[in-house]
Design a protein that fits this description.
By secondary structure, this protein is an all-alpha fold. It has a domain of 43 residues. It has six helices and no strands. Its cofactor is pyridoxal 5'-phosphate. It comes from uncultured Sphingopyxis sp. Pfam families: Aminotran_1_2.
């Protein structure tokens, strides 16, 4: 089995690491850990069948004839931005720079609104920026 640095290097050039994500901040160094502490990514090993999952290959941007394709998998809208969305953006422009700020990463207000509507505990609701982020968060959950 490859160590984390080797896995990251192989993944970077597409040689292995099929379906695995390895977070490496600095490939040239390893930080000293306090005695008894381990990195969760070093101790969690995926089940063998996970390694057999074929990696996702994104769709092509252009057809064989060179004309651009409409990529629905990339959340592209072939019709452009709708009028109601444009109006909402225009209205938000003057609302305390709402469009130039990152949203709350914990989605506190959104989770509280969902919880209130459905009678749930906000701590049991997770929000993310699309399915990729939610899957990533789920995979990270066992490691803390």
């Amino acid at each position: 089995m490859l160590n984390l640095v080797e896995q990251a290097r192989h993944r970077a050039v597409g040689l292995s690491g099929r379906g695995r994500t390895v977070n490496v901040l600095d490939l040239g160094r390893t930080a000293a850990k306090p005695r008894g502490m381990t990195d969760a990514t070093e101790t969690l090993v995926p089940k063998p069948w996970i390694s057999g999952i074929a990696p996702y290959v994104p769709g092509k941007s252009a057809g064989a004839d060179g004309r651009p394709l409409i990529k629905l998998s990339a959340n592209e809208n072939p019709l452009g931005t709708g009028e109601k969305a444009r109006a909402a953006f225009a209205a938000a422009q003057g609302a305390a720079d709402a469009l130039s700020r990152y949203p709350d990463p914990g989605s506190v207000e959104l989770r509280e609104a969902i919880a209130a509507k459905f009678g749930l505990d906000p701590a049991r609701i997770i929000c993310g920026n699309g399915s990729d982020e939610l899957i990533h968060l789920i995979v990270q959950a066992p490691g803390g």
